[in-house]
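User: Fold this, then the next.

Assistant: Folding the first:
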Amino acid sequence: MIVWLPIAIPLAIALRWHPPKPLSAGQKLPLVLSLYALSPLMLWAFSRIEGVPFSIYGFPWGGSGLLSLAIGLSLGVLGIVILFGIEGWLGWVRWQQNWQKLARLLLPLLVVGLLVSVVEELVFRGFLLNQLQHAYGVWPGAIVSSLVFALLHLVWEGWEAAPQLLGLWLMGMVLVVARWVDGGSLGLAIGLHAGWIWAMASLDSAEIIHYEGANPQWLTGLSKNLLQVE
């Protein structure tokens, strides 16, 4: 964060962002990209200073890691499709026929989803989880790293993100378990995270899903956001 501030402060001034005011999409993108471009470099530098291999953070090198990533990506997308399929069967949502728009968005949103997931998993389920588990144990490390992951979303979205905190924490815990299941590799966690982002962003951007209004918000999320709970 200290290294990023000399980049973030001029950007925030140029973009006319005044924390804790929520960021608009146009303000958020340059700030997020600058931070996410810097984070892997900082982790690599930290690993060199500590004299440990970069692989200690669980980055999925090699064929087995890529296979786990592909499995996670498939499971993430399949889960979202099944969820909305059930909601459609129950009459809570209606599918819009914007398939051409969806097809145009799939590839760029996949790239975005993978980039975001790689960086966030390296930071939260890689570096931060390692440090906390070493200091406090397995489960406290998992709980606290997931809590930090959830709370830091308030930086970008302000208190409007508060209803998402429980959902984000649970999401973080699922991704921690995914790393454990994958033998310490982040491949499965990156794939799941990217699959969720890709599926949700694609459906939202292409305006495929229309809520009918009869859906129980405690199940489907406030403001059409699955992570927001009452």
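Now the next one, as you asked:
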Amino acid sequence: MSNPSPKRFYKTAAPVEVGARWTVALDGRPLKTPAKADFFVDRQDLAEAVAEEWNRQGEILDLTGMHLTRLINVVIDRTPSARPGLVEEIVRYCETDLLCFPPIGENRDRILEAWRPIRSWAAETLKIALNEAEGEHLLIGQPAASLEASRGYADACDDLDLTTLGFAAGLYGSALLAMAVCEGYLEAGEAYELSILEEAGQAEKWGWDPEAVARHDARRQEIAVVQTVFSRQAKNISQ
């Protein structure tokens, strides 16, 4: 029998500066992670966004919908000990990256035209040049140098970016799209629309299934968290 969702036990959530870091306090009491660690982030905008998640809650807490809070909990509780596996997960996404497998069908050329600039950007900027499947071949090898470059890229990320990179790659089915958002080459929502081009092409012809619409709406809420973390302004990346 599943546990009932907890009732709201606080009135307000607010970001609080603690030295060079930030936490979020519920009625003045600092948040803790599920592992009872102190909840800290290095950026004010992230603390503000987490506080907003808690303030949006109704009488019953929707913990599963608090995507940024959950992501940062993972960063604090799990990522430090799981880094090697998370790095290799990014490499595996590159081995089977969505952008390397354009669909067979009438929308193939349009999708290729949309995807190839991202692959070219990754090859030129990140030195991650991935092979593209031809025809109906679903098994292709990727250059060892490119996979090593992807490993180096992931390993150079701090815990927050690495965790978000893996989260985004899972949503997109593409490490290249996740990296493009991390680097500010694409917005997170733009990358998501690129990841569902095949489904969108079918929907243009047959219409959207209500369940698919609901699924994508839910994922776009998660995608918004990716954009928050990878915000170029917050990371002080020059335009």
